[in-house]
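Q: What structure does this chain adopt?
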Amino acid sequence: QVSETVLRRIREECGFCCYNTRYGHSVRLVNRPLRLSFCREQIEADNQFIHHVFTDECSVQLSANNRFVFCLRGDVERRVKSVHKNPVRVMIWGGISWRGATPLIMFDAGTKINSSTYQGMIESGYKEWSRRKFGDHATLIQDNAPAHKAERTKEYFER
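A:
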């Protein structure tokens, strides 16, 4: 049996420090050289992304921070947090650019983002905003979500 103090001392002597875990997007190994090449090309071209609008959608849910709970010593009941099986959740879409943020669009709970839903988002939240901010000179940047790369969506953007 090794005490916490001994373990802490060994870690310190070996140069280890304790930090909170940080999270970031993972890039698959096969995509790393491609991503690096793209980034280098953009740097060499001095691309400032001035006419680009980066958009995405995400789900936001109402819940508490479960890492810590602060309560008075001995107050056992407050240490137990109730967990909802189905917390309140909404889907939102938005974008950012050098010239500001797009309006946020919220969807009802359970809305599935398919090609027609996505096209409706572009019509109601992006097109007019983009014309006001950029004229006809904006470049829409989106991820590879199924609704973004669907054939009907591609046809919509070609019109």
